[in-house]
Specification:
Helix content: 55-70%
Main location: membrane
Structural class: mainly alpha
Subcellular location: Cell membrane
Number of domains: 1
Shape: globular
GO cellular component, one term: plasma membrane
GO molecular function, one term: hexosyltransferase activity
Number of helices: 25
Membrane topology: Multi-pass membrane protein
Radius of gyration: 24 Å
Number of strands: 4
Order of helices and strands: HHHHHEEHHEEHHHHHHHHHHHHHHHHHH
Largest sheet: 2 strands, antiparallel
Distance between the termini: 5 Å
Strand content: under 5%
């Protein structure tokens, strides 16, 4: 029998409901059971006033024949992606040179002044995708030819991302061939390539938004945070990361729908595009050990590894030198300009992170320190997962692990912040807080571009850029602290306040603990 105090306290009553494994899993949610952010979020309530104010108690929810929260979220995401494309379009403008040839207009530091820089544009030629007869991981070239630092180079991305670029290059060649016979409009090949790539990247982010909305349970409107994220406005087309976020978010949705093998297949595809989806298997293992669901985790992990091997082995066995390029470059890469290590090195003048190495040398100590710090954070997350009074939600631990990876990594490319967006929306559905962090993170792009422009060209000095980096890191660390607070005080968790346990948990949702160092909040 539950203590009488639980029934007198609504918050404690909700947590007790979450903690009890004997209660049945609720049926599919009716529209009336959705959480309306215009009632629960002051920011949304204020924004809704010009449209009539928050949702009324007697509103006919879920009656429209077409518009659902998911479709509204996808429409908003489409608008955000269009704005992102317009922001990047300045970097695919052309001009006619003195010889009458059309050229890409990157004069006078245009990518940095217009803040339209995208890796997609220079990689089209840098990775030899503009040349006929090339193939990633087989085609090579030499950097710094004729010097002691000459290096043979190959495609530098994981296999699925490399093939993604190659297929888009072939589609570009096909488009231009059809243009030559007058059936399609034409442009510079790199501009056509960028637009084709941007289309598929937009599809990847739409899948991400759709999967977040489906995984969020009775909070489908939270997907709007992913749809309209300032980070999407800036970085959706900065690199190729939305391919991985789409697979990772869909993998979490498959796990939430209790399809562990499908979840593994999707996570394996995501890991073949960017390795970060592999990080999600760690939190999943910790929670499955605590709930005694290791068999389902093994199915997911096995499918993930099998799919990753199926994509990578053919290339690794036949084009090994090209396949190893991604791992070689990551091992030899120094600290990124906006990594924590560069911040420490710049402001203290300390070169202990192998800052004096010559090009091509491996930064051994930097690799050891960054890898060791990340492993320590993973051990800490595992401890949290096993000692929390109520088993943490899957999204909470996944957010902590990915955030720890970014904070401790020697490389934090700006588009990597997209990895956190779907996880943050599911882990911390607090609109004002998340929008503030995403805005701060997106604004780092401005000093970054003007830092790259250079002081000699009226750009910003490095300390301005690194100051913004510190603010971003503090914001992400603050979100981690908030997640930890809600894990150990689940009465503050907005998802659990309405009586849910773990909408993304799949077989973990409302499952009793089998292993754990903590104790449930309420014992019947």
């Amino acid at each position: 029998m539950r203590p009488l105090s639980l029934w007198r306290d609504p918050t404690a009553r909700n947590i007790a409901r979450v903690s009890s494994p004997t209660e049945p899993v609720p049926a599919s949610l009716n529209p009336e059971e959705r959480i309306a952010p215009s009632r629960t979020e002051p920011l949304v309530a204020a924004a809704s006033r010009p449209l009539g104010g928050p949702l009324g108690e007697h509103a006919a929810v879920g009656r429209h024949w077409f518009w659902s929260p998911q479709r509204v979220g996808l429409a908003m995401a489409t608008l955000a992606l269009l704005l992102c494309w317009f922001g990047k379009a300045s970097c695919i403008q052309q001009y006619t040179d003195d010889n009458g040839q059309n050229q890409l207009d990157w004069r006078a530091g245009r990518p940095y002044v217009a803040m339209c820089y995208s890796d997609i544009v220079p990689l089209y030629s840098a990775e030899r995708l503009d040349q006929a007869g090339t193939f990633p991981y087989r085609t090579s070239w030499t950097d710094n030819a004729g010097t002691p630092n000459a290096t043979t180079r190959y495609m530098e991305y994981p296999v699925l991302t490399g093939l993604f670029q190659w297929v888009n290059a072939k589609l570009t060649a096909g488009w231009l061939a059809v243009h030559d016979v007058g059936w399609l409009p034409g442009a510079l090949p790199v501009a056509v390539y960028f637009d084709i790539t941007a289309f598929w990247l937009a599809v990847g982010w739409l899948v991400t938004v759709w999967a977040v909305g489906r995984t969020a349970g009775r909070r489908p409107w939270d997907a709007t945070l992913a749809a309209l994220s300032p980070l999407v406005l800036v970085h959706a087309f900065t690199n190729f990361d939305t391919v991985a976020t789409g697979f990772a978010a869909a993998g979490l949705l498959a796990w939430a729908r209790r399809k562990p093998v499908l979840a593994g297949v999707l996570l394996g595809l995501g890991a073949a595009a960017k390795l970060y989806p592999l990080l999600l298997l760690g939190p999943l293992l910790v929670l499955c050990i605590r709930a005694g669901r290791v068999r389902q985790w093994a199915q997911t992990a096995g499918a993930t590894v099998a799919v990753w091997l199926a994509i990578n082995l053919p290339v690794a066995l036949t084009l090994n030198a090209g396949w190893r390029e991604f791992f070689r470059l990551n091992g030899q890469r120094g600290m990124d300009p906006d990594s924590l290590y560069n911040v420490i090195s710049y402001f203290t003048g300390w070169t202990g992170f192998d800052g004096l190495l010559q090009p091509g040398q491996t930064p051994t100590w930097l690799n050891i320190v960054s890898g060791g710090l990340f492993l320590l954070c993973c051990a800490g997350v595992a401890y949290v997962g096993l000692t929390a009074p109520v088993r943490p939600r899957l999204a909470q631990l996944c957010f902590l692990v990915v955030a720890a990876f970014l904070l401790t990594s020697k490389v934090w490319s700006p588009q990597y912040s997209l990895w956190l967006v779907p996880l943050a929306v599911l882990a911390i559905p607090r609109w004002r807080l998340l929008l503030s962090w995403m805005l701060i993170d997106a604004l780092v792009w401005v000093p970054r571009m003007f830092y790259y422009l250079g002081v000699d060209h009226k750009g910003l000095p490095e300390d301005w850029f690194l100051g913004f980096v510190v603010v971003r890191d503090v914001a992400v660390a603050g979100l981690c602290l908030l997640v930890l607070r809600e894990i150990y005080r689940p009465a503050l968790d907005k998802v659990r306040l309405v009586g849910d346990d773990d909408p993304a948990g799949g077989v973990l949702d409302r499952a009793p603990d089998v292993v754990g160092l903590g104790s449930r909040v309420a014992v019947s």
